[in-house]
Amino acid sequence: MAQEDYRKALRLGQKEFRSSVLKGTYPYLQALDEILEHTAVEYTEPLGVVNIPLASIVGTKTAGRKTAFAGNFMPLLDEDTEFAQKWNALCDAHLSVGIRDPIKAYEYMNKFYVEEGNKRVSVMKYYEAMSIPGSVTRIVPRRSEDKENKIYYEFLDFYDLTGVNYLWFSQLGRFRAMDQAVNSRPGQPWSKEDRRDFQTAYYNFEDAFHRCGGARLPITVGDALLKFVGVYPYETIRDKTGREMAAELEKMWSEIEALTQDEAVELSLEPTTQAPPLISRILPLEQSRLNVAFLYEKSADTSAWTYAHEFGRGHVDEVLAGRVFTKGYDNIRVGENDDEVIERAIADGNDVLFTTTPKLMECSLRAAIRHPEVKILNCSLNMDHPSVRTYYGRIYEAKFLVGAIAGALADNNRVGYIANYPIYGMVAGINAFALGARMANPRAKVHLMWTGEKGVDALSELEKRGVELISSQDAGLPRGDKHYGLYRLDGEEPVPLAMPFWHWGEFYERILRGIMDGRWKLEGNEAGRAVNYWWGMASGMIDVLQSRSLPRGTKRLAAILHKGLCSGTIVPFEGELYAQGGVMIQAEDKQMEPEEILRMDWLAENVEGHIPAFYDLIEEAKPLVRLQGIYKEAQV
């Protein structure tokens, strides 16, 4: 029996050897000593006896035995050698009592190299075991700017919390994200039960991943698992079998394939002007009637954000009457009844769903995977989900114009700016406002405050500083607080001067017309990329409303800027740009890329204030910031 197993293992080793030679890759095991000859080591650390995942054992400590094995640890020596006899004896021991003696190995960059026990590893790999006990010494490289090095140091922090050594990611920030996704107390050590449950879930998912063909993708099992638990919460899948997970994973495979894209998000910066296919202009429309649902976290009575979208829904009802029929679903409790409400909207016969807050992205994604025939769009930015299209406006263009108005009116050169949370696009709005203010008034300083920062009363603090001209939230309720847009403090009531205006109806109308005339397919994602609509003032989606009381010269300036922003002759983030402290961000002959604007995490030099750290945010802000925040992943 063992002799026949050796023959099979030998054939596997020879096949791997020939394949490596044909590919031009090294055909033997890697030797750690040879790797370390060119590596600066920070320290070594004994880990004691741990279970080593066999998939992570890739080589030997020294060069002595490396040519006895192919790169997959299968033997290369003939079956009449003493080596083969010892290998066969280990096979017999494994089948009768099991291989129990720990090997001796070194861990470097979360890969393992065997010093004693190469044949034991070979036998266990042949029998497709998951792990083998080993006495391990960790060798830690010196910190560097290399991406793999940074990921490894994130792994070390994760290992300290979890003791998990079989998980790996291809991108920064994902170890912390996994802890947040599966740990009921993120940042705290895992219990034995936590470790046991996660190990079971991981290996079941690995089975599912391979069933679906994941081995062909240039991503890790961990990458795919993190995406999976972003769709199906960990507590709902940790007891599923590999076969059950595979059924769910297959439905969302486009989401997994998106992980292989260098640029997973395709930004649509302007409405398409491409004509629909000729066939759709000759034949009857594919869908001449649409039922459309609008889903809101809050109601139009309590939320200015919901009120603005409801205003947009009213626009659709008016301009597309008889062709589009809409219905609103409000007061959705995120994480409680969101899946139920979105399923009800689909059961009600709606063909298109607009979910109007990033907080509804997770339920939108699950619904899109369950119902691929329904078109679902979520109001958010920079989300890499091919199954759900996202939409937002380049509000920084309007902020630039409002900033210019503020700068022109700032008699004492002081302008206040009240932001809420540091999420995608927010800092771009602050900086565009500051650049506009400085353009109109080179001495203008923007005093930045955050409503989402703990212990801060933004309005009171600005009043203490003698700031009378303030830009706050974009809009308010008709009968609510008047502290929104750009206003001047003058007695008890603020005096409105200008405000960005979200014309959601314009966006919704264009999207729905595109669905009915076939343009939706023209804008479809290619090669698994997500589609994000990020339109500006030229689309009509965003504008600036101005008070009639503005001075004539200020109105003239605003008109010139408005025309330039719409035509593209004025670009807020073009030319020489400096951050606080005089740090040059961009040279004179450059124009900032859209992705750089989205992820902007610096403040313009004429801004007085800061971006609050994640731990300084109020609890209400943290879920949204985790989802859409500008922080580097490791900070959250």
UniProtKB/TrEMBL annotation:
Q: Which UniProt keywords apply?
A: Signal
| Location of the ABC transporter substrate-binding protein PnrA-like domain | 291-453
Query: Is Ubl conjugation there in the keyword field?
Result: no
An annotated GO cellular component: plasma membrane
Keyword DNA damage (UniProt) = no
**Can you say what this protein is called?**
Nucleoside-binding protein
Top-level taxonomy: Bacteria, Bacillati, Bacillota, Clostridia, Eubacteriales
